[in-house]
Write a structure and sequence with these properties.
Helix content: over 70%
Number of strands: 0
Radius of gyration: 45 Å
Structural class: mainly alpha
Largest sheet: none
Low-confidence stretches: 1-49
Amino acid sequence: MLEDKHDNLQEADGQPQLESQENVVVKNQSAQDEIDNSNAEENEDDSIKDRHSIPMLDYDSMSMDELTDELQKLVKNHPVMSFKDHAEEIRKAFMNHYQHLMDEKRDEFNASNTDENVEFEYHLPIKNRFDEVYDDYKNKRNQHYNQLQKNLKSNLSRRNELIEELKALVDNTDETLSIADMFKRLNDIREQWKTAGAIPRDKYNIVWNNYHFHIERFYDLIHLDKEARDLDFKHNLEQKQEIIDKAKELLQEEDVLKAFRELQLLHRVWKEEIGPVDREHREAIWNEFSEVTKEMHDKREAYLSTIKEREVENLAKKKGIIDQIIALSEEEINSHNAWQAQIKKMEEMRERFFKAGRVPAEVTEQTWDEFKTAVRNFNAKKNAFYKEIKNEQQDNLNKKLALVEQAKSLKDSEDFNTVTPIMKKIQDDWKKIGHVPRKYSDKIWTEFKNACNHYFDRLHKVKNAENKEEVEAFENKKAYLEDLKSFVLSGDHKTDLDAIKGHIEAWKSIGRVPFNRRHIEGKFNKILDALFEKLSLSKKDTELMKFDAKLEQWVENEDNHAIEKEQFFIRKKIDEVQNEIFQLENNIQFITNAKKDNPFLKEVQKNIERHKDDLKLWKEKLTKLREI
């Protein structure tokens, strides 16, 4: 029977008495409180431990798409309570981004809207997707909580039943029940108690004290002999020393937060699973464990202090960025290109702000508000500029629409002598009017161009039908073209260049051909192009000489349609080349660590120079056209 006693002595003397003795000598009460609070939370929901294995990312620096993908991944791959803190941080970061974007869009809407009856609306698809993922998380979380509450109530009921069984065992008056039988019954109750599960936090201390009160009564009733009691004390002392050794090992763990969490578990084992030691060692053993706890607490505080310092550094970075945004918004900008450069700078600053990291919690909202205010002021000034441009473009649109209607009304006129000067003036007036809103630009230009082309095509057909000299000029040019096909370069650059120029002058001297036979000019230009290609001229000189030849032909033939078509084409090419240069220069900015001799970098820079040469050539051609 003595062996039976020893096997069941773990809870001798009662845990509440042990706790009261040991807590008297706790050297760092704040550390112990933190441990006890954590244990209480762990008792309520054991699945919370799982969240410590999921790293907390810098969600503030992630985009809305990245945040949505991250939350979806957590919901899909982890128990719902293992990422509760992560989900709330993700939601907070997402809403910060979303509100910032909505503020910008609302400011832009207010700046451009002239109808007071139209309310601001802006739909962001990623917001709908995020809400769906977050709703999925909330549903799973609510299901978990509902099941948890059921389990907690069920576990509480079961523990109260075990306490009643324990109480009945102590109060049993059946003298036929042997001590061995009573220990067997007690051991069965204790095993069931260990697996009974978590109970509501507010019931924990009451139930735990009640249980150990009746454990004390049981041992008082049995009157354990000193030898068995000493053996139990010795066994408990060995177990607690092992816990202290494990706690000391945790002090060497590099992951401070992980070590702190494992120390919490050791405290739970110390408190709930190991019985008391003899009074001679009780205070010393607790003091030793408490000292390790204090060291761990100090180490954790130092780690948190380091994080705090980093947050202070991040705050300084964000303050600096806010100051830069304020300075940017105070600059006086009066052109579209300059504002586009400012907007690019603004985007870079905003990206740096979001990637700067966390700041101290007490100033998070203030910093965010200061950032939003600075950005809002920048956007207000930008929107005011573009609102003014929009009004100006609307006026230009009205002027050009009036010219379109005038051109349409005259395009079928038969009074060529009267209408032709008017149509030319309409075209000149069109060129003097500035930009119109982009969404109308192509449409009204097409209408205007078609009306003008319709009129001048009719005019040219009438002239060609009446001009016999132009027919004769066509036949002469046709014969000249056949002779030119047999022309061979001598190989002397100056001689050949003079010869080509002579052919151009001879061709011009023949005169203008009928409108419907101007295709012969294209054939002549193709031969010229082939001859120029064989000369050792620079690309620029060759292109300009060929262009001059074409230009003179258009002027000679009064081919305004061809000139306007070429002008439109060149303007389009200038825009394309400028955009390509901008894109290449923008790409270089992302190559931050590349050396100057980096092959990729050199190739990009070479490409930029080539485009700049092309841009210069196109602009020279446009200048020649404008001079006409």
